UniProtKB/TrEMBL annotation:
This is Selenocysteine lyase/cysteine desulfurase. Keywords: Lyase, Pyridoxal phosphate. It holds the Pfam family Aminotran_5. The keyword Signal does not apply. PANTHER family: BLR3095 PROTEIN, CYSTEINE DESULFURASE. The keyword Lyase applies. One of its GO terms (molecular function) is lyase activity. InterPro entries: Aminotrans_V_dom, PyrdxlP-dep_Trfase, PyrdxlP-dep_Trfase_major, PyrdxlP-dep_Trfase_small. Residues 58-349 form the Aminotransferase class V domain.
Length: 356
């Protein structure tokens, strides 16, 4: 893959293995943001006269990237705000299946509303655990992260599709924050009913933007309670009780949402296949190195698939050593989390391995 140090200057001075915490600012994104604010500086409110048209363009690009009708794309500042709005639309007597120790922004909002809950355990048998939970407990909704933020365990998408086919009344709501941008994803063909994500990680879109995608049949049955003047503006928000209108009750930041659009254009320019191939290459080599050194949970080698996020064994001393050697990573759970994106290289993995 071509050298991306110019596109992502941080990689010139650091080995950034921390996309699971935060993506990087690209030169492409910087150019957009500077030009946007320069226009705002010299045009003032004239820039905002076309904001509805501009934001409709963002929805179209998000929908095109994930294969979802633009009319079913909601733009949000982040996943958590959108997810909380969605939960407010669910019947109070709903039963929701969760993953034990999933990301707090998934489980906490569910628990804070007093929904009946049941749980599936996250281990090498994740899919079977979910199936058993759904079959036994018969929940109305399943809410889960597609990729676990500590371990990097990724749920099998074919399984989710089969689960939906076997339980058509089950509504599957997924957080794609640790997944979206890694590979091509066809929302229409997936088993997921609602997919939300913040885009500051694997899409390298900066902060303050995210999106929700929803299947049409679900959108027509769920009425969000959140509303505002912005809910009835724009080509795709003609009714004040529309699902997308409920996700967008107030003004949207064209700088932030435009950053999402710019990041998608960069992904397409580099090529999603090239991005995915590089991540897969690094992921497989990392699994080999970490497994050989017994640095990761044996669960990883037992799974047919895994993300490019790894939690390696290491204490505060090792963490400090990595940071001192310009390797950016995070302490998560009981170990050190490292994550590989397409701007990383095999040399990055080699240097990490030598330091360990």
């Amino acid at each position: 893959m071509k050298n991306l140090k110019k596109e992502f200057p941080v990689t010139t001075n650091y080995i950034h293995l921390n996309t699971a915490a935060s993506g990087l600012l690209s030169e492409t994104l910087l150019d957009f943001r500077q030009n946007h604010d320069l226009d705002y500086l010299v045009k003032g409110s004239l820039l905002k006269n076309d904001q509805d048209k501009f934001l409709d363009g963002v929805r179209k690009d998000v929908g095109s990237y994930f294969n979802c009708d633009a009319s079913l794309v909601g733009l949000v500042p982040n996943f958590s705000l959108g997810f909380n709005a969605v939960l407010e639309a669910l019947p109070k007597n709903s039963k929701i299946a969760l993953l034990k120790e999933d990301y707090p922004s998934i489980n906490w909002p569910v628990l804070s509303r007093g929904f009946k809950t049941c749980y599936a355990i996250i281990d090498e048998n994740l899919e079977n655990n979910i199936l058993e939970c759904v079959t036994k407990e018969k929940p109305d909704f399943l809410c889960l992260s597609l990729v676990q933020y500590i371990s990097g365990i990724q749920v099998n998408f074919d399984f989710l599709k089969e689960l939906k086919q076997a339980h058509p009344n089950l509504i599957i709501i997924a957080d794609g924050t640790q997944y979206c941008g890694v590979e091509s994803f066809n929302f229409k063909e997936s088993g997921i009913d609602i997919l939300g994500a913040s885009a500051y990680k694997w899409m390298n879109a900066g902060y303050g933007n995210g999106f929700f995608l929803i299947k049409n049949e679900v959108a027509s049955n769920l009425k969000l309670k959140t509303t505002g003047f912005n809910s009835v503006r724009g080509a795709f928000k003609e009714e004040d009780d529309s699902f997308i209108g409920g996700l967008e009750p107030g003004h949207l930041d064209t700088l932030a949402q435009g950053s999402l659009q710019a990041s998608i254009k960069l992904i397409k320019r580099i090529g999603q296949d090239q991005i995915t191939n590089q991540i897969d290459l690094l992921k497989q080599k990392a699994i080999e190195v970490f497994s050989e050194k017994k640095l990761v949970d044996p669960i990883i080698s037992k799974r047919a698939q895994h993300s490019s996020i790894f939690n390696i064994k290491g204490d505060q001393k090792l963490f400090n050593k990595l940071i001192e050697n310009n390797i950016i990573c995070s302490q998560r759970g009981t170990g050190i989390r490292v994550s590989f994106h397409y701007f990383n290289s095999e040399d990055d993995l080699t240097k990490l391995s030598r330091l360990i």
